[in-house]
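Meet today's protein:

…
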Amino acid sequence: MYSVDILRDHGSTSQTILSIGHQWKLSVLDTEANKYAVPDYTQINLDLFFLVKQLKNLKPELLFVTKFANGDFPNNPNFYLNKTDLFHVDFILNYNF
């Protein structure tokens, strides 16, 4: 985890988490071994947490996720559409009671 002072005068900081993973899957053409026909893929997550001194219980978060296919598979959108080769961004408000 990496921490940086973003607004030093106000006492606010940010924390960053970077995660990288790779999933090895069997052939997308083998329906018994790979039921949902998901190809090999690599996923990268970048999570930014903002810690605001004035709002102690609120922890805003910005999450970036990218997922891209690896290996050989037929050039058919059914094997990668909504499964791999995507980029996703979330803004999350975490509140701790």
About this structure: The chain has one domain: 2-95. The mean pLDDT is 86. Residues 2-95 form one domain.
